[in-house]
Amino acid sequence: MTASNASAARGKAAPTKSPARSARDSVFESRLARHHDELRWLYMELYDNGDMFAELIDRMRRFSDERSEALRKLDIVREQEGAWYRSQDMLGMQMYIDNFAGTIKGVEDKLSYLERCHVNYIHLMPFLDTPSDKSRSDGGYAVKDFRRVQPGLGTMDELAHLASACHERGMSLCMDFVMNHTSEEHEWARRARAGEGEYMSRYFFESNQEVIDQYSRDVPQVFPTTAPGHWTYLPELGQCVMTQFYPYQWDLNYRNPRVFNEMMYNFLYLANQGIDIMRLDAVPYIWKQLGTNCRNLPQVHTLVRMMRMIGEVVCPGVALLGEVVMAPVEVVPYFGTVEKPECHMLYNVTTMATTWHTVATEDTRLLRQQLDAVCTLPKEYTFLNYLRCHDDIGWGLDYQTLRGWGQEEVPHKRYLNDYFLGNIPGSPSRGALYNADPVTGDARFCATTASMCGIEAAGFEGNAEAMEVAVRKDLMLHAYMFTQSGLPIIYSGDEVGQVNDYAYRDDPEKADDSRYIHRGQFSWELVANIEQAGTVQSQIFAGLDELERIRREDPVFGSEAAWYPKDYSDPAVLWIVRECGEETLHAVFNFSGASKTIWMPERARYRNLISGEQAELETFELPAWGFAWYERQ
């Protein structure tokens, strides 16, 4: 080789990597090596497409390279810490950006308030770009661009800045990752509607009426009243497109590897903006197969397991939160196994619904039974506990058990809805039905926690005695939520006892969706009242503040503590025991409108965690809807 040729060869040589770049590459390759074989095996089993798998790995490497240094450091810290989302001091709050603070910048300006609430997990409700017509946005769940924020809320740069500001304060951000469908205004849908085969293959198009009929026969409807059916006819194509939720939300076809890959690229892009928890929306529905009910199919678990591994390779500081609104036996499999995990966390949906059933019936037996099942699961299985969220409350209870106690499904659902509407004598609750079916009588329910506890009714009536009971009930239910193991989350406004907002009925774009009754504008005027002793806002805010402090500081509330519901002769009393080392907590909750004399398991010395007082107890009194946290000394 001549000198000139040698010089040319050296000029074409790859540039020397910096030590920092080499270290980053080494970390990525090490993480990939742990998962590569299983990831490839699952991908090829599902898609049998080596080229698409190679592309996926290449793009994962690229997203890893684009991850900021600050997020890389956070990844390492969380990898070393392990299940960081199970920390004893974790407390979540769920909010719509516009309702809470107007914009993403507005949320950043309110971080000091959230710190005052002891919140370190902020769930921002859907903020990605959606149709401007709110009646076709499904509250943000009809996404038309996964890489653009709704213009009225801000920009992706502002989201990344908010995430960075949260991380500096020890806070984390959660967002909804809508996997099952896109808006009909998404680029893929627009190009599919124009007849482009590449994009039509990303959805489910069908012209065969027999196939359409079979799907309609085998697959349960999601919204049989407000959005009946599974298909929407497109006259310009002479075909139907699958729309299991609403006609303007087109179901994605995950049998096409291009869909999975592209959605994973969206997932990683959002993770690189600083998102810490990805809430996987409607995850049980994402795989469709003719001849099945298209729910909880094995391929869904394959997809979620692959997502978990992809995250652990590229962004291991990000956790997956699964939204699985199913019976407990169908929920638990979404944790995967300890050896092959899927979701990091799951919503404790059934326990939430059963809690309100318990309020309406003053009977804790079903709740005890469910808590008994939950507490026997591996401690690695982390539930997100809540009293209410942005969505309705569906009465998906264990009717097989209830039937044995003389409570049939249809009349019991009707009773629950009547109770929470305030139609049952003695009920202080107020709210609205959602998706009511006049034929079957079935319906779901919507309201804020405060309104369901009676704060709205007591305030309207000016009834001070009823207000005292309503506030006590509200705090009791939050104490009960904090006593469970898992991550508690409060809906914005519940910390100040905000009641239902009926203004949605006057908005044509919202009037048909009663869920807006509990999605009202956050009232900063109520926040001002927390400084005024004796106000409802002061009582609830201060009460929650004390409960949160105790839960943060006492080891008996730690994620490693053992816990279980204790049998007690009175069905209106729920008794939970938590044990950690030498410490034993007796948490007792009165789910009734009558005061109770509670007998301790033995005469001994106990400390009241709320008052700090110590005494030798054999019995104690619980007022109506009251609770006690007693720690044995």
TrEMBL record:
<dbReference type="InterPro" id="IPR006047">
    <property type="entry name" value="GH13_cat_dom"/>
</dbReference>
<protein>
    <submittedName>
        <fullName>Amylosucrase</fullName>
    </submittedName>
</protein>
<feature type="domain" description="Glycosyl hydrolase family 13 catalytic">
    <location>
        <begin position="94"/>
        <end position="539"/>
    </location>
</feature>
<feature type="region of interest" description="Disordered">
    <location>
        <begin position="1"/>
        <end position="26"/>
    </location>
</feature>
<feature type="compositionally biased region" description="Low complexity">
    <location>
        <begin position="1"/>
        <end position="14"/>
    </location>
</feature>
<dbReference type="InterPro" id="IPR013780">
    <property type="entry name" value="Glyco_hydro_b"/>
</dbReference>
<dbReference type="InterPro" id="IPR045857">
    <property type="entry name" value="O16G_dom_2"/>
</dbReference>
<dbReference type="InterPro" id="IPR017853">
    <property type="entry name" value="GH"/>
</dbReference>
<dbReference type="GO" id="GO:0005975">
    <property type="term" value="P:carbohydrate metabolic process"/>
</dbReference>
<dbReference type="Pfam" id="PF00128">
    <property type="entry name" value="Alpha-amylase"/>
</dbReference>
<dbReference type="GO" id="GO:0047669">
    <property type="term" value="F:amylosucrase activity"/>
</dbReference>
<dbReference type="InterPro" id="IPR044077">
    <property type="entry name" value="Amylosucrase"/>
</dbReference>
